[in-house]
Specification:
209 residues, mainly alpha, Arc Repressor Mutant, subunit A, Tetracycline Repressor, domain 2, 10 helices, 0% strand, globular, transcription
C-alpha cells in the first residue's frame, strides 16, 4: 500500500474533497476488480495488468495505489483495524488497556458494517487458499500488533510492561481472527462476528483485567 494514501472516509471536521473522493473511488474499483478476478481465476492466474484493465486504469496508475496484486485484494481490512486502533488510542485514560480494547470493539460492533464483514470473510477465504496472500496478511498483522502494543504502552507508560502490552496486542488480534474464522465456518450464518469477537475477548480477558 502506498504511504501517501488518502483518508477513506470523511469526518465532520475533515470532509473529503473531490480529488480525494475520486482517489478513494479508484482505489475501491481496483480492489473490487482484484477480488473478482481472484475469485474467478485464482490469484496465480491474475496479473496486475488484468486487474488494471478490469478497473479501467493503466498499469502505472495501478502502481500509484497498490504495490502489488496482493495489496489490492487485501485492501480495506488493514484500514478498518487501523481505525479500531485509533479508537483504542482515544479511549479515556481511566479505562484499563483491556477495557479500552473491549470498548473500541463495541464501537465497531455497533457500527454494523455488514459489507466490510462479508468482505473480510472473502479475504480470509482467499488468504487460506493462496500462500502469497496469507504471507502478506500475516506481515500486515505483525505490523498492526506492534502498533497496537505501542498504543497500549503509551496509554499507561508508568504501569504497562512492554512485554505485557505485546502479549495483549497479540491476544486481541488472535481474538479477531478466531471470531472471523468461527463465523466463516458457520457459513456466515452464526452470530454477528463482532459479537463472537466480544465472546472471545471475554474468554481471554481474565488475564488482562
Amino acid at each position: 500500500m502506498d504511504s501517501t494514501e488518502e483518508p477513506l472516509a470523511a469526518t465532520p471536521d475533515a470532509p473529503l474533497g473531490l480529488r480525494e473522493r475520486k482517489k478513494a473511488a479508484t482505489r475501491q474499483a481496483v480492489h473490487e476488480a482484484a477480488m473478482r478476478l481472484t475469485r474467478e481465476h485464482g490469484l496465480d492466474h491474475v496479473t496486475v495488468e488484468a486487474i488494471a484493465d478490469a478497473a479501467g486504469i493503466s498499469r502505472r496508475t495501478f502502481s500509484n495505489y497498490f504495490a502489488g496484486k496482493e495489496d489490492a485484494v487485501l485492501y480495506g481490512k488493514e484500514q478498518h483495524i487501523q481505525r479500531l486502533l485509533d479508537s483504542v488510542r482515544d479511549r479515556p485514560a481511566e479505562e484499563t488497556n483491556w477495557q479500552a480494547l473491549r470498548a473500541a470493539t463495541r464501537v465497531l460492533r455497533d457500527a454494523r458494517l455488514d459489507p466490510p464483514r462479508r468482505e473480510w470473510a472473502q479475504q480470509t477465504r482467499l488468504a487460506m487458499s493462496h500462500p502469497s496472500l496469507l504471507g502478506r496478511q500475516l506481515s500486515t498483522l505483525a505490523t498492526l500488533e506492534s502498533d497496537l502494543a505501542a498504543i497500549l504502552t503509551a496509554r499507561h507508560p508508568a504501569t504497562t510492561d512492554p512485554v505485557r502490552a505485546r502479549v495483549m496486542a497479540a491476544a486481541f488480534l488472535v481474538a479477531l481472527r478466531i471470531a472471523m474464522q468461527l463465523w466463516i465456518e458457520e457459513n456466515e450464518q452464526a452470530e454477528d462476528p463482532m459479537e463472537l469477537m466480544m465472546i472471545t475477548m471475554d474468554e481471554m480477558g481474565e488475564r488482562f483485567v
